[in-house]
Amino acid sequence: MTTTTFCTSRDQIAGLGVSELAARFGTPLYVYDIETMYQRVSELSSFDVIRYAQKACSNLAILDRLRRRGVVVDAVSAGEIRRALAAGFGADPSRHEIVYTADIFDVESLELVCKHALQVNCGSPDMITQLGEVRPGADVTLRINPGFGHGHSQKTNTGGEQSKHGIWHSQIDECLRRADQTGITVTGLHMHIGSGTDLEHLSEVCEAMERAALEVGRTLKTISAGGGLPVPYKSDESYVDLERYFELWDASRNRLSERFGHRLNLEIEPGRFLAAESGHLIAEVRSVKRMGDNLFVLVDAGFNDLARPVMYGAYHPISVAGCGGSAADRESVDVVVGGPLCESGDIFTQREGGYVDTRHLPAPRVGDFLVLENAGAYGFVMSSNYNSKQRAAEVMIEDGEAKLIRERETFDDLVRGEHIPD
Known about the structure:
Structural class: alpha/beta
């Protein structure tokens, strides 16, 4: 496992100058180092299947590059099914390159699942019945809520009775009865309890998976470890021990394989783990002003570009790229970093609950650039047009070359589809 170090001064991303990237593509700007994603893929190679949770970062170019590395994909909406198909993932039902995972079917997603004979990972018992009515005889996976969860924020906790996700662990028998009514076969189990999984919680998840698998029985072909692998956002945080992580899941898989008399495939479903550290959001400093005891540094990116701080109180490392040279030798000061939106919550340095924090950085100046690090997961994909802001451009660095993979939105893009009636 490679290590991550955080610094408060940064002049380059993957060997290319921050100032040069900003001059060429404008700001705010998302920049992805694809090699970082490749490194994370290689670190998960012990698993039989790596299924990327594309909701973390779903640009077609990113999906295409991961597909070329043998990664398959998870889709949580009709739009993500279409994205996966557009990026070249196949719909061959024997390969399961695309799996639809959700707690409901809307009309379009059910139509696409049937049209392309996609595997479905059902998060509600009703989905089994609804699929069986239009596609009897299909194979499905069940996403099980084991009754407990974990996450760096309550909003990212996907297990337990306060979570809407998954099939409650005591309803497995009901799901099997629903499946029998239309010839549906349960061939897989999936269990994801939230982000930030640690080994203590993982052992509980493995035990819960085994109990659920024994209840389903020998029709199972696959178990999925889900996602939630942590990445460090702060210097005192660390990665999970991936070797030990795999060993725990592999041991569960092996016990079940022996019990059923055939070998089960072991999947993992990373999203943030593959994408987070590859991504950087570059923003230009437009104002530095004092408000009482606080020194505010205001940039041209806001929570319309990166929503995690305002939604979760999420921490992102921030570094300064000097406009006229390195900022490394400047005096460091405590600053509050905010954006341009007409919204008091438009602060990047805040804790959950909206409490404003400061960050110790080399004194930023107007015209400098701030780089918000580890912004590849749940960054651009959660961006919006709030305050009629146009969404940022996206750039992928590959083989030392910066490649535009999404154009910056224009005003025409912003109002497309709007009409003023007579």
